[in-house]
Amino acid sequence: MLSQKYRGMLGKASVIMELSAFAGARAREIGAENVFDFSLGNPSVPVPQAYNACVSGLLNSEPCRAVHGYSQGLGNLEARTRIAASLNRRYGMNYEPDDLFMTAGAAGALAHALRLVTQPGDEVLTIAPYFPEYRPYVELAGCTLTVTPACPDNFQIDFDALERTMNPRVQAVLINTPNNPSGAVYSARTMERLAHFLGEKERQYGHELWLISDEPYREILFDDTPPVYPSRFYPRTLSCYSFSKSLSIPGDRIGYLAVNPACGESKTVTRMAAQISRGIGHDSAATLVQRAAAACCDMTADFSVYRRNRDLLLKELTALGFSIVRPEGTFYMFPRALEDDAAEFCRKAMAYDLILVPGDTFGVADHFRIAYCMETEKVARSLEAWRRFVRTEYAQG
Asked: How much is the pTM?
């Protein structure tokens, strides 16, 4: 008999992927240059040349088994050593190689993190707006996703709402900073308050609380926004990272789980992660990609394109009457729609070949997401479509 759980998920497909598929079909009809697809967060800037050179060099100079063979249970030791040293140097941590577990992207890291610190039936708390795939990640680990809203004026954590939502069944809090979809970056003050809050709740509930930090956009910061590394603030932090965005290599599926050694059990936790891999069929990331990404772990792609795109859209959409929290990072923004039903707003936008994602999929029904990871020339051309849309449908701007 086919699994009823996964059969049931067929009716709950990703809205983002469905919109991206629609954009692709529309592009075949009228030409890709005429469709302004803001749906999918697929990095658009080139991969650093050094990364491609590293891949080529490894393939041409290393023995076959060294680049195509199995890696160790926690991942390639050379890769973990390089990444640990980079994190220690940049964020003042004291990771050792065995505090890291290599994964197939941040999704792989999250899949392991959730299973490491919960039992079936537990709750995992996250803050809206949140990445919609958190729900299947959490539910397929046997847990329930509990959602609390952020402060609407800046998308920082609303601690009054967090207090009302928190309960003893929660075993982990899942955060995402810089945030998809809002582009908000948690400040040091926010992280200090969250660490204090979690410590107080541990004492109140009499059990550990873990912080799972989803960080694939950690390197994409604008306007001299200071980097804030959550593990610096709270000892029981599991840092889930992907090189997909920093190096523009989403299809290479490489990331890691870093366990804060201050928790006192970091090496036990990573060994447990290797056992989880046995059960879910993850069984280590590709050795070649581990080694290449680690060799380039202090590099990034050129993010100036994303900043220019943000500035173009922010200026134009604000002039058209949109309310937008200024993104401090990522390549997303999350404006308030011009009507209460953002799904209807996005449906109307499709008639102008503007493909947008309604905010209900992120837990905020009156907003919508713009993924502006595309060529600046195309963003600039989209502005006229935005003007026609807003003036025709909403008689403003």
From this structure: 0.96
Q: Is the peptide bond before 327 cis (omega within 30 degrees of 0)?
A: no
What pLDDT sits at residue 31?
Answer: 95
Distance CA 291, CA 132 (A): 30
pLDDT band at residue 9, thresholds of 50, 70 and 90?
A: confident
pLDDT at 250 over 80: yes
pLDDT at 45: 95
pLDDT above 70 coverage of the chain, percent: 100
Tokens found for residue 112 = 């392991």
Q: Tell me the per-residue pLDDT of 48-104, one tens digit each, with 9 for 90 and over.
A: 999 999 999 999 998 999 999 999 899 999 999 999 999 999 999 999 999 999 999
How many other β-carbons are positioned within 10 Å of the β-carbon of residue 46?
Answer: 12
Q: Output the six-digit token pair for 158.
A: 């609303």
Q: How many CB atoms lie within 10 A of CB 218?
A: 26
**pLDDT at residue number 326:** 97
CATH numbers and ranges of domains, the chain: 4-47+302-394 (3.90.1150.10), 49-295 (3.40.640.10)
Which of 125, 133, 126, 77 has the alpha carbon at shortest distance from 102?
A: 77
CA distance 281 to 293: 22
Nearest to 72 by CA among 270, 250, 243, 242: 270
Report the 10 Å Cβ neighbour count for 396: 10
Question: What is the overall mean pLDDT for the chain?
Answer: 96
List of residues 6+ apart from 363 with CB closer than 8 A: 128, 129, 130, 132, 147, 149
Residue 106 CA from chain centroid, whole number: 7
Q: What pLDDT shows up at residue 13?
A: 77
